[in-house]
Amino acid sequence: QVQLVESGGGLVQPGGSLRLSCAASESVASLNSMGWYRQAPGKQREWVAIVTSGTNTRYQDSVKGRFTISRDNAKNTVYLQMNSLKPEDTAVYYCNAIRNGRIYWGQGTQVTVSS
Fold first, then answer.
1. Which residues are bridge partners to 68 per DSSP?
2. For strand 109-113 and strand 10-12, is the pairing parallel, antiparallel, or unpaired?
3. d(CA 31, CA 39)
4. What is the DSSP letter of 81?
5. How many whole angstroms separate alpha carbon 1 and alpha carbon 3?
6. I want to staple 63 with a disulfide (CB 3.0 to 4.6 A). Which of 56, 67, 89, 103 is the partner?
């Protein structure tokens, strides 16, 4: 069982930045992939960014050039650096990990972009 704990959410003005963290209970290097998803009110959960065990990264088109996912193996932590935030980025952000076909989720952290 992999436990994931997100942190770093909050209220930020449009154009601002936040960095989300996801601390894993096990070595992130042992996981097939880790990612960030988000769910806005009244909408389905959608993927935002993923990083594989080989450090390959992928991004949803709407966040390309603004968000950066990275992994710190020594700290068993994955980050999501979010810049140039927009009101439409407002959502609960969830950390996700996959290992050997099993999917694990964190509890989520709220990000609100508003003036």
1. 81
2. parallel
3. 23
4. E
5. 6
6. 67
Question: Could you read off the pLDDT of 6-39 as tens digits, one per residue?
Answer: 999 999 999 999 999 999 998 888 888 999 999 9
The alpha helices in the chain, defined as continuous H runs, are none
Give the contacts of 26 (CB within 8 A, at least 6 positions apart).
2, 76
Predicted confidence (pLDDT) per residue in 69-107, tens digit? 999 989 999 999 999 999 999 999 999 999 999 999 999
Residue type, 38: R
Please give the structure tokens belonging to residue 57.
Answer: 């990264």
DSSP letter for 40, please.
-
Using an 8 Å Cβ cutoff, are 50 and 67 in contact? no
Task: Output the six-digit token pair for 32.
Answer: 């097939």
Give yes or no for a contact between 113 and 12, defined as CB atoms under 8 angstroms apart. Answer: yes
Query: Which tokens in the block code for residue 105?
Result: 């989720």
Instruction: Decide if 96 contacts 36 (C-beta within 8 A).
Output: yes
